[in-house]
Structure formats: C-alpha cells, structure tokens
Write a structure and sequence with these properties.
Elements lengths: L1 H8 L10 E3 L4 E6 L3 E10 L5 E7 L4 E3 L3 E4 L1 E9 L8 E10 L2 E12 L4 H4 L4 H10 L1 H8 L13 H11 L4 H11 L14 H28 L5 H13 L5 H12 L7 H7 L11 H8 L6 H14 L5 H19 L5 H10 L7 H11 L1 E5 L5 E7 L6 E5 L4 E5 L6 E6 L4 E2 L5 E4 L4 H10 L4 H14 L4 H11 L6 H20 L7 H7 L9 H13 L3 H10 L7 H13 L6 H13 L5 H10 L4 H13 L5 H14 L5 H9 L6 H16 L7 H12 L9 H12 L6 H16 L18 H4 L2 E6 L6 E8 L6 E3 L2 E4 L2 E6 L6 E8 L7 E6 L10 H12 L4 H29 L1
Parallel strand pairs: 2-9
Antiparallel strand pairs: 1-3, 3-7, 4-6, 4-8, 5-7, 8-9, 10-13, 10-16, 11-12, 11-14, 14-15, 17-21, 18-19, 18-22, 20-21, 22-23
Helix pairs in contact: 1-29, 3-4, 5-6, 8-9, 9-10, 12-13, 12-14, 13-14, 15-16, 17-18, 18-19, 19-21, 21-22, 23-24, 24-25, 25-26, 25-27, 26-27, 27-28, 27-29, 29-31, 30-31, 31-32, 34-35
Length: 895
C-alpha cells in the first residue's frame, strides 16, 4: 500500500493492475459443532502483475490465518472455529479482500452438524431409530452404544436420556435396544428367532420347577399336621424342631400347638416368633406377650414380629401396649438409624416416630424411609431393581428378595428398570409399586432439622423449578441444587434456565442488581451447556452485573451477534473506554454490529474511527457518521483515503479527501497521491471532475517555479481542462505558456493541444496536423488503419505512437477537402474497438506558409476563377524559391 501511494505522490500512474482470479467464488462446507476446521482458496493474478493486499473477516469465528498476502499466486487458509456453536444450524458471512486489484467480497456459509456422527445427527425421533434398527440391527446397536447417540435430537428429553443411561449398562445390547424402543412406544418388528432372550426363558422354567417342588413339600406337611392332636408327639416334635432350628410353616404350626398345650420347652416362645409368618395378623397367646414383656433383653430376631403384632392388635390404652411402648420406640429409632424398612417396620415407624423426636441424626436417614416404596414383581427372571432418576447421573441397584424390595423413590418420575442374573436390563416387566409410608409432617420436620439432606434439597429445588423462582430464598435453593455434584447435565441445564428466567424477570421489574453471591454463581454457569436462548439470557445477565469480560467471551464463543442494542451499548461502551486487552480486531467487529443497528453511541463510534478496517464502503459509512457527530475523524480519514488510493476505489473518495484535507494536520504525501489519482481519472479515463479541483490544481502548479518538477500527469490534466475553457485570465494564460513549453519539449502533443491555440501561439508543426488519439488499458498495443478520401480506397496501416503511458497518438496532414477514416484494433480481434473520421477544416492560419498556400491552391482548383488560382501558384513558387535560396546560401557560407 505504501509503495503505491509513494508512486502516486511522485506522479507515477500504474496503468496495469492485477487481474484477480479466485479458485472458488465462495467458501462453503459442513462442519462438526465443537471442532475447528480448515479451508483454503487460491488467488491468482492472470496477467502476471503481483497481487498485494489484505483480507478481513466479519466474524471472529472465521479467521484468515495470514491476513496479508502477495505474489502472482497465493493460497489463503481459513480457520473456522465451531466450538460453542452446538445449537446453531449454520454460520455465514463474508470476507473482504482489499488489494491492488480492487476490493471484493467472498461470501461463506458453513452448515453445522451435531457433534454426533452423521447417523446420530439424522435421528430426529425415536421412530427414526426404530426404522434404523429394523433395517440393520447390528448397525443400530453400534450406534446405540456410542456416546454420540446422546446428542441425537430426540435424546435431549430427560426421561428418554434416563431410560437410555439405565439400559445401556445392560450386558446384552440387543435386549437394551429393544427395551429402549418399547419404553418409547416404538416397539420394533422382530423377525426370526431371538436367542438373546433364551437366558430369561431358562430362568422362568427354573422358577416353575421350584414351585412344583414346593407343592411336594406341602403334601408331606399335611401328613404331619394329622398327628398334632397327640400332645406327647407335639412336645417331641417341638423340641426336635428347636434343636434343628426350624422356622418354616410346619414348625410354626407345631410351636403354636405346643404353646396352646402349655408346653414349657426352653426357647419355645423365641422359635414361635422366629417362625411367625409375615402375613400373620392375629393376636399372639397372652403368655407370649407377658413372657417378653418381663424380659430385659429381647432377641433381635424376635423384636420385629413381636412389636409389629403388638401395634397391630393393641391400642395405646391397653396394658400390653403400654408394657411394650418404650421398647418398641427404642427399637424403632435403632432400626431407623440403620435405614431398615419393610411393611412391618413401616407400621412401627408410623406409630412410634413423631415429629418432635426427629433430630439431625434421624433427619439424615428418615427421608429414605418416608419415601420408600415396595417394588414387587411375579416375574422370576429378574433379580434386581434399578432406579434411575432423571435429575441425577448415578443409578441405584437393589437386590430383590422373593421378587420384592423396598426402594426409596423420592420423585414420581424416576425410571424403574429390572436386571436379570445375566446382567441384562429390562423395562417391559409387570410390577407393583406401593408406598409404605406417607407422613408429610415428618418430611417437613426432616427438611427443617436437616436442610442439607441432598435428596430433600433436590426435591425442594424441583418444586421451585416447576413453579418458577419467587424470591431470593428460592433462588439460593436452585443455585445450590445446580451446583451439586452428580446432577445430570440435562437437568442442570434446566435449572440454569430457571435461574436465568428469574434474572430476566428481575430486570423486567426494574431491579438490575444481584447480590455478590448471586453474581459469583452467575459467573460459574457454563454457557456451553445452555440452549441458544439461554446463552443470550446469560450474556444479558452478565452485562447487567458488569461482568463485561465474561459476557464478551461468551458472545465470541457462541457467535452472539444479535444482542439488543441497549446491552451492546453498555458492554462495548465499557470495553472501549477501559482499553480492555481484547483483540482490537474482534472488538471492532462487535462495534460494527452496534453501528449497523443504528446506534449513535459516541464512544463506540470513536473506537471504530480509530480502529476499524474493512471495505471502503463500510469505513466510509463510519466516517460520515463520525463527521455528523463532530468526532475525531483524523485516523479514519487517513486510513480510508490511503486504502482507496491503493485499491482504486472511487465511491466517496472525494468526500473522504475533502474531510481529510480540512484536518489541521494531514500528510502531503497522501494529498499529492490523491491529486495524481484525480488527474489520471480525468486525463486518461475521461471521468468528470469538479471545477474546484482544477482551481486547487492550478494553484499547486503555479506555486512551483520550475514546471519540470511538476508531475506530467498534473500538467496534462490542467492543460486539457484549459482547452475546454472559453477564456483564461492573464495569470492563467501565462501559466499555460510555461506549461506548454515543458510539454512541447517532451513532445506530449494530443488532440486537445490544438484547442489551446485560442489562448496562446502554438508551433506550426502542431497546428498543421490533425490527431487520432486512443487510450488503451495496457493489455495490448493498438493497431491503427487509415484511408484518406477521396484518394484511398482501402485502409492501410499507420504508425501509432505511444505518447504517454497507454495513450497513442497519430498526427496526420490533411488538405482541404480530404477526409481521413480510421479503425483501431486490439490483438487478434477482427472487430475494431474504435472507429472515427477526421476532416480538414475551412479555417486558415493565414501565416503564408507552404501548408496554407497548398490548402489555398487545393480550394482554387475546384473553382472557376483562374486568376485567383494563378496568384496562389505564384505565391507557392516565390515561397519555395525563398526557402531554396536561404538553405542554398547557408550551404555556400558553410562551404
């Protein structure tokens, strides 16, 4: 750029500029969100003239690895950073090339696909995945078992994700896929044998065999029961069974009969309770109650069936109840602290645990009891129940006992799965779920005493999130829940959404301030995991809380370019005033966004005036608005004028020059370069120039005493302009004589030169000729063909002399009545680029020279006055004799 301006300032005009050709007219491609991709393009100068220039991007996500380029052939490398653009569909904009071949824009559009593979990205619904499975099971299973599967569109639902996470841990992936589709109500059509289900079928048969064996045992028990009328036999059997430690149903019948017979066998009452069936609800023999009521130490295995039976059959005002109340209460607390639960314990807790008893230790374990549900299934294939909360990353596995287990279920939306002994996960299992306790007052007491309980805190946060945050206390609860380890990514993102909505609501109510803890939390929200809408909400909140650096970082990361004007003005106004360390080039792009929105923020506009570089058109818009607001435009005016001179941009250049020339300080080098450019436009390219320009040009030339020091193009432009004037001042006439002395000495004679004879005297060799003139583009030398009528019938080549740069001139002598027709050709073209006619005029110089006399004789030949012709011929003879005598005499004197 500097080289070209220096040349212009010295009056050197480059007629030939590079002819730029691009290997592609646009950048286009598909990117994976979250990755950085590279693209390239080749710029070539087709005419061999070296290219020089700069490339500007309109987006910080799209960068040219080396913005300056040069050479006949150069490769541009483009880096596109798609990190942080997971929620976007495409990235489009333009690159601006500013070069000595001119200015142009290269559009780009990059389509973004999910971080998932192509297959996963195409799965918009569960139905799509079902079709994929039906078409190619093995491929669908491989897709299912990849981490990228989570990024499929339909997998962004928290329940669907929880089902997937639970099933994916199963051993057999085919079973997992089928169960997954069934759970989403997209059961696939299965053809042929399904060997994967053989394991569970074998288990079902085994369970059936077990039932048959139980039936055989039952028949034996009938035989034993028939002999229980014999007291001696009952006594013997009871004693034997105790020694064998039998606690089955047959033993219970024997123990019951022995007690009713008044037996005093050692440990009879203990084994009676050991063998007591769970479903037994009738009162026990009174002697059993009394026996244990007086015992200071009751066997642990006895406590549960005994205490349960007491509470089931006696009210609080009975003597039996009162005898056992303290013991039952102590037992309840002890079992509670060990987090044990079943149907019988549930009754004990319900009757014996009161809100005032709940301290921090109890409150830590009681919620698991309060939210416990009994999961029961008759399907003997499964051995464990799996609980997967949508809100949590982890899962919980509980071993089934006799097809049942007590499982704490804090949330109704928990996903329940089953696992068989082979490790397969199943969902299509019939089961019953029964909550064993429901004590709202105890739940409330637990949260009051021990608010740090993780699941109660999460439950509280869930309720708030469902209804929206109402106050600072609820905000704190949601913030703490979102900060808790183990929260699932989808649910954490939802909590962030709820928080950001609350922040937005505060702003809508005119409250623009958050307290320090809230601001500290706000700064920790990872924008990468938010939706496009939430990312903008986060940026707005960061700006409102004056976290400008973080806000700007997120705007760059997620390519947020359409933020509301008031937020942009606040953010960018701060950043430009505080001279942040951000890359000025990136900051100016966002400042241009604000500028294009119509903002008249003076601070941002001043920053653009000092720092923005782009297309001349955009820079001109900034300059004009800066001028309107009377800002300091010096830097922009200088940069823009230099760029326009370098890239040969025309639009608005006069405006830029006028603003620049009005500045107290400006570069004379740029001014001279501009003047040269305008002179070239006028003289070479025939563009119209405002009259005031020539007034300045005249003054500049007039100020130089030695005209040879003035660039020739300046002299040519001024004299050509003068040739069109009707009159000149004496000062202008004198200046014209001095200029023409220089031009004639340099043999710079053009078609317009003769017109200057109305102001000054020109030599005969100028006035005696007519001029054919052509200005080319430097690509090829023109060829001139001429015929002079009436004598010539055919066109013949004529010498065409390069007089100045690519301006060619052919002077011709035409006598009165002659007419010269000409054609100008370029290269191999058969068609002329220019045609024209020159005709000898009627005007005479009346100088009496040979040319005048010959023209006069030519006129008289066609007339009827022979005397006039004779006189003209005599003048010609006398004139020639004088010339001969002068030259002959001169020759004799030399001799």
């Amino acid at each position: 750029m500097k080289e070209r301006i220096n040349k212009l300032a010295r009056g050197i005009v480059d007629m030939i500029s590079p002819e730029l050709k691009m290997s592609k007219d646009r950048f286009e491609g598909t990117l994976s969100a979250g990755e950085i991709s590279k693209f390239d393009m080749v710029l070539t100068s087709e005419n061999g003239v070296q290219l020089k220039g700069l490339i500007y991007s309109d987006n910080p996500k799209v960068t040219v690895l080396k913005s300056a380029f040069g050479g006949v052939r150069t490769r541009i490398f483009l880096s596109v950073d798609a990190r942080g653009l997971e929620s976007r569909k495409k990235l489009e904009g333009k690159l601006t090339v500013v070069s000595n071949a001119g200015e142009l824009e290269i559009p780009y559009v990059f389509y973004l696909k999910s971080r998932a593979g192509d297959e996963e990205a195409a799965l918009d619904s569960a139905a799509d995945f079902r079709r994929l499975f039906e078409e190619d099971e093995e491929h669908a299973i491989r897709v299912f078992d990849t981490d990228d599967f989570r990024h499929a569109f339909f997998m962004q639902d928290s329940r669907t994700r929880a089902i997937y996470d639970g099933l994916r841990h199963g051993k057999n992936k085919r079973i997992a896929v089928i169960e997954f589709l069934k759970a989403l109500h997209e059961a696939p059509e299965l053809s042929g044998h399904n060997p994967e289900f053989t394991d569970t079928a074998v288990m079902a048969k085994a369970a059936a065999g077990s039932l048959t064996e139980d039936a055989g045992e039952g028949q034996n028990n009938i035989k034993v029961a028939a002999d229980l009328k014999n007291a001696a036999l009952v006594e013997a059997l009871a004693d034997q069974y105790i020694k064998e430690e039998r606690v089955d149903r047959e033993a219970f019948r024997v123990y019951s009969k022995a007690i009713s017979n008044g037996s005093r066998i050692t440990r009879l009452y203990e084994y009676y309770l050991y063998a007591l069936p769970e479903e037994y609800t009738d009162p026990l023999p009174r002697e059993v109650y009394l026996y244990f009521a007086f015992e200071n130490s009751i066997d642990d295995k006895v406590k549960l069936p005994l205490f349960y039976n007491v509470l089931l059959n006696f009210s609080a005002d009975t003597d039996i109840y009162q005898r056992f109340e303290r013991k039952i209460q102590e037992y309840a607390i002890d079992e509670l602290l060990h987090s044990r639960i079943n149907d019988r314990l549930a009754l004990i807790y319900d009757r014996m645990i009161f809100a005032e008893m709940v301290d921090e230790h109890i409150a830590e374990v009681l919620p698991a009891i309060l939210y416990a549900c009994k999961i029961r299934t008759e399907d003997r294939r499964v051995t464990s129940v799996v609980v997967k909360y949508q809100e949590l990353d982890k899962e919980e596995i509980f071993r089934l006992r006799d097809g049942a287990q007590y499982v704490p279920l804090y949330f109704d939306n928990a996903v329940i799965l089953f696992q068989d002994s082979f490790g397969n996960r199943l969902m299509d299992i019939a089961y019953e779920k029964t909550r064993v306790m429901h004590k709202p007052e105890l739940e409330e007491r637990c949260f009051t005493v021990y608010p740090e309980h993780p699941m109660l805190k999460l439950a509280y946060a869930r309720e708030i999130a469902k209804n929206g945050i109402k106050n600072e206390r609820e905000l704190l609860a949601i913030e703490e829940a979102a900060s808790t380890a183990g929260i699932s990514p989808l649910y954490r993102s939802w909590l962030y959404t709820v928080i950001l909505r609350y922040y937005e609501g505060l702003n809508g109510n005119g409250k623009d301030e958050l307290n320090e803890p809230d601001i500290a939390f706000l700064k920790t929200i990872p924008s990468e995991n938010l939706t496009d809408m939430d990312q903008r909400a986060l940026v707005r909140a960061l700006i409102r809380t004056k976290q400008y650096a973080l806000a700007f970082h997120d705007m760059i990361l997620h390519d947020i370019r359409d933020l509301d004007r008031k937020y942009l003005e606040r953010l960018l106004g701060y950043m430009v005033l505080n001279k942040t360390q951000e890359d000025a080039g990136v900051l100016t792009l966002f400042c241009m966004d604000l500028f294009n929105s119509g903002s008249k923020n003076a601070d941002v506009l001043q920053y653009l005036l000092e720092n923005y570089n782009g297309s001349s058109r955009e820079m001109l818009q900034v300059l004009k608005r800066g001028t309107q607001l009377t800002l300091d435009i010096a830097s922009m005016a200088e940069r823009l004028l230099a760029q326009m001179l370098f890239s040969r941009s025309d639009e608005g250049m006069d405006y830029v020059y006028e603003r620049y020339s009005e500045l107290p300080k400006h570069s004379e080098l740029l001014v001279r370069a501009y003047v040269t450019r305008k002179c070239a436009e006028y003289f070479i390219y025939g563009k119209g120039i405002e009259e005031k320009f020539f007034g300045k040009l005249f003054r500049d030339i007039h100020a130089v005493n030695i005209k040879d020091r003035v660039p020739v193009i300046h002299l040519l432009a001024l004299t050509k302009h003068m040739s069109l004037e009707k009159s000149l001042t004496p000062e202008e006439t004198m200046e014209l004589r001095e200029i023409m002395d220089v031009l004639l000495r340099k043999k710079l004679i053009f078609a317009y030169t003769k017109k200057l004879s109305k102001f000054i005297t020109l030599p005969d060799y100028v006035m005696d000729r007519y001029y054919i003139e052509y200005t080319g583009d430097g690509k090829a030398k023109p060829e001139l063909k001429v015929r002079v009528l009436p004598d010539d019938k055919e066109f013949h080549p004529q010498e065409f002399t390069r007089v100045y740069l690519d301006t060619f001139v052919c002077p011709m002598v035409l006598f009165s009545g002659e007419r010269a027709e000409y054609e100008i050709y370029l290269g191999e073209s058969k068609k002329p680029v220019k045609t024209g006619v020159l005709e000898a005029g009627e005007a005479r110089n009346n100088r009496g020279d040979t040319y005048d006399i010959l023209n006069d004789m030519s006129d008289k030949l066609s007339g009827t006055n022979d005397n006039e012709l004779k006189n003209a011929m005599l003048r010609y003879v006398r004139n020639e004799s004088v010339i001969d005598e002068l030259f002959a005499g001169k020759g004799s004197r030399n001799a």
